[in-house]
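hey so i finaly got around to running the thing on ATP-dependent Clp protease proteolytic subunit from Caballeronia glathei. pasting the sequence first so u can double check i didnt mess up the copy paste, my clipboard has been acting weird all day
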Amino acid sequence: MKNRKWWDIKATTNAQGAVVELRIYDEIGFWGATAKGFIEQLDAVAGGAAEVIVAVNSPGGDVFDAFTIYNALRRYAGKVTARVDGVAASAASLVVMAGDQVVMPENAMLMIHNPWTIALGTAADLRSTADMMDKARDGILAAYRRKSGQSDDELVAMMDAETWLTALEAQSLGFCDVIEEPVRLAASTNAAGLLARFQKAPEPVKALVEGAGDSPPANDPPADEPPPAVAPTSNPPPVDPPPAPAPQEPVPAASAETASVLAAHVFNACREANLSALAESIVTASGLRDRATVDASIQSAKDIAGLCLAAELPERAVEFVRDGLTSDQVRARLFEAVTASQRQLNNRQRPTAGDVSASPQGPKAASIYAARKGGAK
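ok and heres what it spat out for the 3d tokens, dont ask me to read them lol
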């Protein structure tokens, strides 16, 4: 789905004046919508507002888009209240740090960790990416330090450990200012695959973000009622009445945890096979329908990665896996790419076997020996 916004912005009024509430209930910076569009819409509605309320229930996303939102909110002249409606993890926690006041219900959670990325290229490319990630961490560290007042050493240790904080823990460390009564939480889109990235995501957190338990359980089949009492008669019925049909057991609905388990299985399998870059593509291609589909997608991804590596085009694997191509389709795509590259590099006609003049002629040992012998006479 293209250009689907991961935010929602609306303007209201109260006794203090205009209030803008923006909700981030999805992965920041994805679905074809960037922070640029977010800022443009925010500027359009928040110009004369007395307060901006930022409601977050997100597993994270693009850290640089999160920086853009953080800086825009910090520059805002009015009051900024950040509210964690469920989970503010990874890059989403950076957005929350922009609030002049941070509010968390008792059942909300905050997660901080080091930024991570997927990179391909030469050793120089990877070193450059590592340097960039270190600088991104320094920026995140500065935002956490400004809000919490914790030392750099304490914050670095928490980020290295991927730390999940309850509302009470976040308040004790300075990340949260006000704790509210627990609330019923809305679901965050596509959270199963995203939370699987985190090695220490607690099960309650998965339930919060995915909205597990929000839907009421299916009604149980009605219990058989005892038949009404019948007054005794002198003439009993000739036959017994047919037995009531046995109630059918309802088909159990797939739980939200199932998707989380399958997504975790994908990411773990990819880590073991050194194919972490393909994990998200496998999640997309398989749809996390069931274990058999997921395992088939994992094996297909391994085969595709091998084909791309053999063709010296490893970067194409992510695209091929995401699009759900078969190995035969990938072979055809790679053949087209390789032959097109060869045509660009050398478009000269090869010489035929009988065309001696087309081949360079080097010195021959027999000719040199004959020349020397003739000169000695």
